[in-house]
Amino acid sequence: MAEPTRAAALARIAAFAPAMGELYADRRNHDHGPAAGDALARPNVSGLSPWLRHRLVHEREVIAAATADHGGAAEKFVQEVLWRGYFRGWLEQRPSVWRAYVEGRDAALDRLNANAGLRRAYDAAVAGRTGIDCFDAWIAELTTHNWLHNHARMWLASIWIFTLRLPWELGADLFMRHLLDGDAASNTLSWRWVAGLHTRGKAYAARAENIRRYTGGRFDPRGLVEDVEPLDEAAEHPLVALPAPGGAVMPGHALVVHDGEGLALPPALAHPPAIVIGLCAPDRRSPAGVAPAVAGFARGAVADMLARAEGLWGCPTAIAATPDELHAAAAGRPLAAFRLPTGPEGDVWAAALAGALSVDDPYDRALWPLATAGFFKVKQKAPRALAPLGLALG
Ligand SMILES: Cc1cc2nc3c(=O)[nH]c(=O)nc-3n(C[C@H](O)[C@H](O)[C@H](O)COP(=O)(O)OP(=O)(O)OC[C@H]3O[C@@H](n4cnc5c(N)ncnc54)[C@H](O)[C@@H]3O)c2cc1C
Fold first, then answer.
1. In this structure, what are the phi and psi dihedrals at residue 243, rounded to the nearest 5 degrees?
2. Torsion, CA 119, CA 143, CA 53, CA 350, rounded to 10
3. How far is the CA of 42 from the centre of ligand 1 (A)?
4. Is residue 81 marked as binding?
5. What is the distance in A from the centroid of ligand 1 to the CA of 252?
6. How do strand 275-279 and strand 254-258 relate by DSSP bridges?
7. What pLDDT, in 10s, does the model give residues 107-134?
8. Residue 86 is assigned to a ligand binding site
9. Is the pLDDT of residue 1 over 80?
10. Which atom of ligand 1 is nearest to the CA of 182?
């Protein structure tokens, strides 16, 4: 079981580092199914996503480990890590996509109550009773282990949308409820990508032959719709400017950290905080709340991060699950907050932190401005943008 600690994340990096080069590039698309004992400990993919999602370990550390061990042979692995930053930067600059997802999800949840046929199809899908062998197995894996291989996510999403003809937003919501790494940007934009809404007009088809080959013959799916028609939407999502960097923190401030910023690489602050407050409201990732394992991982991650904050600054710490608890813990001190990403975190906390000084992550600040269109620009320009942070991407 994945432990929500930085120590566990570092151990996973150390264990997987030898595979971050050619092995990963050659074998990453194969889904061998959950590993015995620890479902995430796969030989061919890192299983690092829950820790990266909560930033118990930073992308910079993972990229540095990969390039140190493998140099240019780590290119494929590094690119995948960059996808996370690409999606985060992209959503930050098109926040209306998140709003549209929330509205679409809530409308689809309402339709479930009004449409018995849709309700039956949805209930069968989320219970893993569709009769499509791989789909039903992945639903069981998702709800048991709270994690899926990337290829299984793509296939599942494609079958959900194009074979079962269910609203993509309900599938994305199911993932947010059950994934340990459930992340507004990677999840929403990946579902949109499969549907044909991210790269407009280009959808992802789950093909039976491809599934058979990359799952080692574990499945023989029947009846898949392979000739897929991309979804479309009327809404345009304008690009908005990224916020300007925050200034220096004030003496006696309360430092506000959230469950996506685990202090893996602590910021250099002009003044130490008087208190560190960890925001944690994982149940807000979905209207139905999240699975106990998901909530437990998020809470554990924040507790681990606060223990580190105590060691760093020797100040008291507190966990806040609501804006009222945040205000009570801050007790009128000036607030300095790690930037809240667009998504459930922003929805819950943005108003309470409206006057707070923003603390920025240098990696995000370097990468996000590149994420205005397709991934290619990030791939091309990341080496130069990240070089000042000591990352040698070739
Ligand atoms: C429909 C769908 C939903 C997804 N939802 C999420 C989500 O909620 N949270 C999430 O972190 N990832 C999501 N992904 C992306 C990807 O599937 C996971 O990040 C990856 O499977 C995690 O496994 P790993 O740690 O072994 O990755 P590795 O292959 O070992 O890659 C290393 C790290 O790079 C990042 N990464 C790798 N591939 C991607 C990718 N395609 N997009 C973004 N980041 C990537 C992850 O942080 C990952 O831990 C989704 C993909 C799809 C198709």
1. -65, 155
2. 40
3. 14
4. yes
5. 38
6. parallel
7. 999 999 999 999 999 999 999 999 999 9
8. yes
9. no
10. 8
Show the tokens assigned to 138: 């992945």
Residue 37 burial class via C-beta count within 10 angstroms: exposed 0-12, middle 13-18, buried 19 and up: exposed
Share of the chain above pLDDT 70, in %: 100
List of residues 6+ apart from 81 with CB closer than 8 A: 52, 59, 62, 63, 66
Secondary structure element (H or E) that encloses residue 159, with its range: none
Q: Which two tokens stand for residue 211?
A: 């599934």
What's the token pair of residue 221?
């799916």
Per the annotation, does 77 bind a ligand?
yes
Centre of ligand 1 from the C-alpha of residue 271, in Å: 36
**Is 225 labeled as ligand-binding?**
no
CA distances 75 to 9, 69, 371, Å, are 21, 12, 19
Residue nearest to atom 47 of ligand 1 (CA): 49
The residue whose CA is least distant from atom 32 of ligand 1 is 81
- What residues does ligand 1 touch, defined as CB less than 6 Å away? 28, 45-49, 52-53, 80-81, 83-84, 87, 149-150, 153-154, 157, 175, 179, 181-183, 186-187, 190-191, 194
Nearest 5°: CA angle at 259, between 255 and 263? 55
Does residue 29 surpass a pLDDT of 80?
yes
Q: Are 242 and 94 in contact (CB under 8 A)?
A: no
Residue 233 burial (CB count, 10 A)? 14
Separation between Cα atoms, residue 79 and residue 25, nearest integer Å: 10
Quote helix, strand, coil % in the chain, to nearest 5.
Answer: 55, 5, 40
Residue 265 pLDDT exceeds 80 = yes
What is the token pair recorded at 375?
A: 């991934």
Q: Annotation-wise, does 174 bind a ligand?
A: no
DSSP 207-222: -HHHHHHHTTT-----
Paired tokens of 93: 């600059």
Q: Are strands 357-359 and 275-279 parallel, antiparallel or unpaired?
A: unpaired
Asked if 277 contacts 318 with a C-beta cutoff of 8 angstroms, the reply is yes
Pocket test of ligand 1: the residue of 13, 23, 48, 80 to mutate, having most ligand atoms within 8 Å of its CB, is 80
Contact 221, 152 (CB under 8 A): no
**What mean pLDDT comes out for the span 24-45?**
92
Structural domains for the chain:
6-93+366-389 (no CATH), 96-214 (1.10.579.10), 254-360 (3.40.50)
Tell me the two tokens of residue 1.
Answer: 């079981």
